Amino acid sequence: MKNIDVYKEKHVLVLGLAKSGLAAARLLRKLGAHVTVNDMKPFEENEAAQELDSSGIEVICGHHPSNLLEEKKIELIVKNPGIPYSNPILVQAAERNLPVLTEVELAYQISEADIIGITGSNGKTTTTTLVYEMLKADGKDPLIAGNIGTVACEVAEKAEAGQVIVMELSSFQLQGTRSFRPSAAVVLNLFDAHLDYHGTKEAYAGAKGKIYENLTPDDTAAVNADDKEAGRLAERTEGKKILFSVREYLTEGACVHNGAVFYNGEEIIKTGEIVLPGKHSLENILAAVCLVKTRGCSNEAIVKVLTSFTGVVHRLQFIRTLNGRRFYNDSKATNILATSKALEAFEQPVILLAGGLDRGNGFDELKPYMKHVKAVITFGETAPKLERAAADLGIEAVKRVDNVEQAAGAAYSLSGEGDVILLSPACASWDQYKTFEERGDMFASAVHKLD
After folding, report:
1. How many domains does the chain have?
2. Which of 42, 181, 309, 338 would disulfide-bridge 333, Cβ 3.0–4.6 Å?
3. Is 126 annotated as ligand-binding?
4. How much is the pLDDT for 200?
């Protein structure tokens, strides 16, 4: 860990706990800051707050005091990524021109290791995992962190010079960065998402684009040549651009051509040998190839991973086959683009299980991808909207249930041999479940109980 003194004797507010807030508070104290933590969860129910309090860090729980910034002489805020900027304390901070960061900025500042940064509306977790596994297979001793579940600053504390941290990054995390500079970065794709948080697509795109913002000519920007909006985010970067495309042959960069994956004109692997299902997986694979090649990764290591890697949990995760029906858990599909890509992965008849938090969008954009859908099981706040979309397509077998556990049984009762039963909600889980992981685990459990 780099010894930095930028936070020494500074009065810093950590706003919101969870994993990232807890790690940030601990780190800031190590760096010599005067740390105050503010979290809405009541102290008696808040294990993280109790732990920090017992270590001597001041913790204020249950409310956001209106005079907190003034009373504690706050000079800087490190906020939990999920807290919106409309929060009263953050509004006050903006009025006072106080810096508001997320913990990934701290991770960058202390890290002795290079960082490979991966963001996008969809495919982040799969691409991050692919990059990590490819580098690992090549003996590069990589680390993995960020939105994938391991707090970035905790990993950065332990990282050593010569290593690389493969970091999955959300728009929430990136919006709170200033100097953050990965050695290689990618925006996989761009789609309307998290508009309830960012307000506009332009603001959402701007947050994603920050991953390219500080690149130098010594760094690499992997750019999706098939996604014009994502590509535009890299227009002003100083990083060396490496393109990838599923649609076009590229003599430089990564592409799919004549049934094979190529990099800089050299064939790496036949697409038929790749285990991951779906055309959308090829986009993630090409991005991963571009990123690992910046670290000198061998074709042999890439092939080893692509012929064995079956995917990540909750992302088109195969669960089981029961009486000729194949069940897939794609609970991480929290928007329409993710579900459309999942539907594209199958040519068999599909029973689609979808629904969840209503963020105000319709589902017209999903309709062109529902050609193989024979039945729809809906749940959650968006159930009526999805039912209207199914009716517009003439899908007669539509059933509303209370939750994903019921959805598993309902889908099986409507299915026939050879069908795919696909949980791909196209919506966030927060209307019924704490996380998409919880939603997917409950579905998988229900599927294993079927007989």
Report:
1. 3
2. 338
3. yes
4. 84
Mean pLDDT of 71-100: 95
Q: Which residues face 261 on adjacent strands?
A: 256, 269
Q: Are residues 265 and 343 in the same domain?
A: no
123 marked ligand binding residue: yes
Predicted confidence (pLDDT) per residue in 147-170, tens digit:
776 899 999 999 999 999 999 999
Which one of 306, 335, 354 terminates a domain? 306
Burial class (CB in 10 A: 0-12, 13-18, 19+), 419: buried
356 plus 219 within the same structural domain: no
Q: What is the pLDDT of residue 57?
A: 97
Residue 192 has pLDDT above 70, yes or no: no
Looking at the structure, do residues 160 and 253 belong to the same domain, yes or no?
yes
User: Mean of the pLDDT values across residues 221-248?
Assistant: 97
Q: What is the pLDDT of residue 179?
A: 97
CA 344/CA 135 separation, integer angstroms: 29
| Amino acid identity at 150 | T
**Three-state secondary structure string covering 340-393:** HHHHHCCCCCEEEEECCCCCCCCCHHHHHHCCCEEEEEECCCCHHHHHHHHHHC
> Token match 């706003």: residue?
15
Annotated binding residue 122: yes
415 is in an annotated binding site: no
Residue 36 lies in a domain: yes
Buried b (16+ CB within 10 A) or exposed e, 23-54: bbbbbbbebebbbbbbbeeeeeebebbeebee
Determine whether the annotation assigns residue 124 to a binding site.
yes
Q: Known binder of ligand: residue 125?
A: yes
Q: Are residues 89 and 114 in the same domain?
A: no
pLDDT in tens, 415-434: 999 999 999 999 999 999 99
pLDDT of 102 strictly over 70: yes
Model confidence, pTM:
0.82
Q: Mapping DSSP to helix (H, G, I), strand (E, B) and coil, where does residue 205 land?
A: helix
Whether 83 is in a domain gets the answer: yes
Task: Say yes or no: 53 and 195 in one domain.
Answer: no
Q: What is the mean pLDDT of residues 20-32?
A: 97
pLDDT grade, residue 197 (50/70/90)?
A: low
Distance between CA atoms of residues 335 and 121, nearest Å: 9
- Establish if 108 belongs to a structural domain: yes
